[in-house]
Amino acid sequence: MTQRKTQQPTVDGIHHFSPTVTDIEASAEWYQRVFGLERVPVPFPHYGSEDSGYAILLTDPNSGLAIGLHHHRANMGEQFDETRTGLDHLALSVSSRTTLEAWVAWLDELGVEHAGVTDMHEPFGYSVLVFRDPDGIQLELFTLTG
Question: Which residues does the UniProt record annotate as the domain VOC (predicted)?
Fold first, then answer.
């Protein structure tokens, strides 16, 4: 094994998630309703290509999670497809299976379709709750179960 001169820098966590969406206002409303996010009142230009579109930033003051929804003028409105090169899904960590059950109740109350909590034991123990945003982007709430 080669001896390295520098130590690998660390990553402190996820800062933000930025999907391109077909209807930025509908997506902003959905993410605010589902995750309780606050909207930053000013849209952000696409730096270096300001004419191509803009982003709306939503933030969670408790966790620090930020979601930047992007509108691109060139977007033809096609639905998300995780089988194509790019994003497959986004998984957010929660503290316990009990928290996943609370999310099930919350999503049910909002009328957001989901797959229910799935418990897996291979390749390690975890539980996951899968649902999709308005563009079909798969979102997961995930916890290790030991």
Answer: 13-144
Cβ 44 vs Cβ 31: under 8 Å = no
| Token code pair at residue 122 | 């291979």
Whether residue 21 contacts residue 134, with contact meaning beta carbons closer than 8 Å, is answered with: yes
Please state, in angstroms and rounded to a whole number, the distance separating the CA atoms of residues 139 and 88. 9
Contact 114, 128 (CB under 8 A): no
pTM beyond cutoff 0.70 = yes
Residue at 8: amino acid letter? Q
SS3 49: coil
What's the domain count of the chain? 2
pLDDT over threshold 80, residue 11: no
Alpha carbons 26 and 43: distance in angstroms, whole number? 15
Peptide bond into 45 cis (omega under 30): no
pLDDT bracket for residue 89 (50, 70, 90)? very high
What's the CATH number where 49 sits? 3.10.180.10
